[in-house]
Every structure is written in C-alpha cells, then in structure tokens.
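#struct-pred
JK: can someone run the complex with S-adenosylmethionine? inputs below
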Amino acid sequence: MRYRLGRAIGRLLALPVGEVPALDLLEELRTSWGNEAFVANLPFLAAVAKHAVAAEGPILECGSGLTTIVLGALAGRRGVPVHSLEHVPEWFAHVFTKLRRYRVPGIALRLTRLISYGPFEWYELPKGDWPNEFQLVVCDGPPNATTLGGRYGLLPLEGPHLPAGAIVLLDDATCSSEILVRRRWHLERRMREEIHQAPDRAYAVLTLGGQ
Ligand SMILES: C[S@@+](CC[C@H](N)C(=O)[O-])C[C@H]1O[C@@H](n2cnc3c(N)ncnc32)[C@H](O)[C@@H]1O
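RT: done, structure tokens with the ligand placed:
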C-alpha cells in the first residue's frame, strides 16, 4: 500500500505543469490512500484536480487528506499557495507526515480548533500569513455530525476574502446538512451553482458573485 501510494504520488508530481491527471491515476491515488470512509470520491477528486490546475491565486482547503496532496502537486508546485485547515491532531499528523515523506510542495497545513462563533462553530482562523483573497475553496469539512452548522461558517467568516468569481467546491452537496448550508449561503451571497451528481454522492461548484 505504502509503495503504491508513493508511486502514484510520484506520477502526479511528474506530470507536466498544467496537465490534469487522468482518472486512472486519481483512482490509483484513492485506493492506495485508503481511508475509504472519508476520502473524496473520484468525481470530487477529479474536480479538485481540474480546478487546482487552473487556479492562479491562493487556495483554501477545509478538511485535509488526499485532496491536500492533489492541491500541492497541481497548484502548490506552481507557486500557488495552499492553506489547509485541519482540526483533528492525529489526522493532521498523518497528513503532515505524508506531505513530508513524498515531498509535496506548497502546502501550509494548519492544525486549528473548532470554536464557537455564537450561532455556529467553525475553524479558529490562524493569525498571520493569511491571504487577503482566496480564488478557490475546497470545502470538505468540518464534519456536520460534531460541528454546529457544519460547513456553513465558511461564508460568514471567509466570505470577505472570497472575491467575485471565486469558486467553492462543496462535497456531499445533496446531504441534508449541505442542502441547508447551501440554502443559507444563497440567502447571504449571490452565487451560481452547478450540482454534479454521482451514484454515491454529489458535489457542488459554487461561483461567487460580488459581495
Ligand atoms: C471528509 S474528511 C476530508 C477528506 C479529504 N478531503 C480527502 O479527500 O481525503 C473531513 C475531516 O474528517 C476528518 N478525518 C478524515 N479522516 C479521518 C480518520 N481516518 N479518522 C478520523 N477523522 C478523520 C478530518 O478531520 C478531516 O478534516
């Protein structure tokens, strides 16, 4: 498994800059990464890869894992900064070790806490070295089951840092909790929405309008 993962990440890092990885490579990354209960499914991982290749400005990731590796290989390697928020210390250590072992560039992986902002909970935002604007957000955390409001906090807290045209990739978009999150977001900000349905779950591509 470890050998397969290293080989797959090596193939990803060796792609010419600007090339979107083929589905068979992404599937090899998924199966060798393991963590089946949490890892991005193939359609979401492919969307993350496609947008990472195109991103020209800073990227925010909420909830780290294999997607962090893909963002580093396809955007971090080109000098596009990637800030990834993680609240579970053991999982942070796991992902950090993989980033270091496989020399995945350009990731600022941040161990942070989930804190209360009154009506909702979300990541405590790091102080210092925080981009003024993000062009792309990969929104796969924090978990709904244990977080008041789940992923909702992204927009009230980071919305001022998301300019018109910024893209949010939201996994699990048709789960009841994410339907609620999207409804609340639509009330607070203009955004165009595309839902991509796969047999197991769906993701949304949200393109933000002006504030
Ligand atoms: C849906 S997961 C993020 C998955 C990531 N985007 C990927 O593709 O691998 C969201 C959160 O679940 C938690 N998590 C992931 N794997 C876990 C594990 N094996 N055990 C406990 N928590 C885990 C982490 O806190 C993570 O930020």
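RT: quick notes.
The chain has a mean pLDDT of 97.
DSSP finds seven helices and nine strands in the chain.
JK: thanks, will look after standup
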